[in-house]
Write a structure and sequence with these properties.
Layout: H1 2-31, E1 40-46, E2 49-56, E3 58-60, E4 65-66, E5 73-74, H2 79-92, H3 118-122, H4 148-161, H5 165-176, E6 196-198, E7 204-206, H6 215-218, E8 221-222, H7 224-235, H8 242-248, E9 256-259, E10 263-267, E11 272-274, E12 280-287, E13 290-297, E14 302-308, E15 310-311, H9 317-320, H10 322-338
Parallel strand pairs: 6-15
Antiparallel strand pairs: 1-2, 1-14, 3-4, 5-8, 6-7, 9-10, 10-11, 11-12, 12-13, 13-14
């Protein structure tokens, strides 16, 4: 018994030591001298428990008001997985089929879109570049990242449910217990954290157009804590059944993107899929003044969430997402090491 107790203590000690080393690395990344200092929230959790939280920077540069852990950010394309879940819930209820042509629900779409399916909207393989423009390639034949596709998905869910997309999302967030997340139409004045873009001459501009895109594609507002709750609900099978979740997280045919930050990237429905070394699911999100990230490693039930309210160079996504990429790379390395893989 004594030997077993010593062994358990040793294992726990090694895990604690590895985690401590990881968090020291993250501290070093976030606090190292840099012309582009981090301004935002880093939130890492595992096994349903927050393990590392860091809040740095300001919500108001003039008055130097510090950011808070529960500040609300526009999460950009992280919104797409929320839209995908609303669609997949209708699929699970038998109210739509993924191979249905979108013209079955949207009678006003051009005749040339007759072969575009819901599956292709979800996987960015539809060829639509504008709601009044012809397709740029044969549906299903290749990938083109699209905001329009997710706006069309929202319109389809409205047609089927009779509820506005905003109301559908409100009910979804209520089910999850996400009290600080909302469709932008429900956002109250002053709730959104101030965000900034730095110009080439070093001056900062307060952004006021962060919410002007399609909400279903990139306009939801959330906090780090609520995105952690979202991950628990989604990957814990509380929103869609495990078979449908597996379908959502499976790479789709021809859905491969040359991602501006991560290079060659596979897509499921509203979410990226990476299984090099260990499974990794999630998404980056960009809106004027906001750069966000939410990734999940199922082998350790680990969430990695980074919300940033300062964009240093909107023309260079690698620079804009510098901290996000460094953080998720360190966490992934630690997850793989903990699995005994090289």
């Amino acid at each position: 018994m004594l030997r077993l107790a010593c062994l358990i203590f040793l294992v726990i000690g090694l895990r604690f030591s590895a985690q401590t080393d990881l968090y020291r690395q993250l501290d070093s990344i976030l606090t190292s001298p840099n012309n582009n200092p981090f301004s935002g929230v880093v939130f890492i959790a595992a096994d349903k428990k927050p393990q590392y939280m860091k809040v740095m920077g300001f919500s108001d540069l003039d008055h130097r008001n510090p950011l808070q852990l529960n500040d609300k950010f526009v999460i950009g394309s992280i919104s797409k997985q929320i839209t995908a879940v609303l669609v997949l819930q209708l699929y699970e209820q038998g109210k739509l089929k993924l191979n249905d042509p979108i013209s079955k629900y949207l009678k006003s779409v051009p005749n040339t879109w007759d072969t575009v399916t819901i599956d292709q909207l979800l996987s960015h393989t539809h060829g639509i570049i504008g709601l009044d423009k012809p397709l740029v390639f044969k549906p299903g034949s290749r990938f083109m990242y699209s905001q329009h596709g997710y706006q069309l998905l929202a319109m389809i869910t409205e047609k089927i449910t009779g509820l506005t997309f905003a109301e559908q999302s409100r009910l979804l967030f209520k089910k999850c217990g996400m009290k600080n997340t909302c469709h932008p139409s429900f956002l109250k004045p002053g709730e959104l954290v101030t965000c900034f873009t730095r110009s080439a001459n070093g001056s900062y501009t307060v952004e006021a157009k962060s919410l002007e895109g399609f909400p279903a594609a990139g306009g939801f507002v959330s906090t780090a804590g609520d995105l952690f709750i979202w991950n628990q609900c989604l990957y814990g099978g509380k929103l869609i059944s495990n078979p449908v979740l597996k379908l959502m997280l499976s790479p789709k045919k021809n859905a491969v993107r040359d991602h501006p930050i991560f290079g060659n990237t596979l897509y499921g429905y509203g979410i990226t899929v990476n299984n090099e070394g260990t499974d990794q699911f999630g998404q980056t999100g960009f809106a004027d003044g906001f750069a966000c990230m939410d990734f999940y490693f199922p082998s350790r039930k680990r969430s990695v969430i980074v919300l940033q309210n300062t964009v240093y160079d909107p023309s260079d996504m690698k620079k804009t997402f510098y901290y996000h990429k460094q953080i998720v790379a360190r966490v992934k390395k630690a997850v793989i090491k903990s699995q005994g893989k090289k």
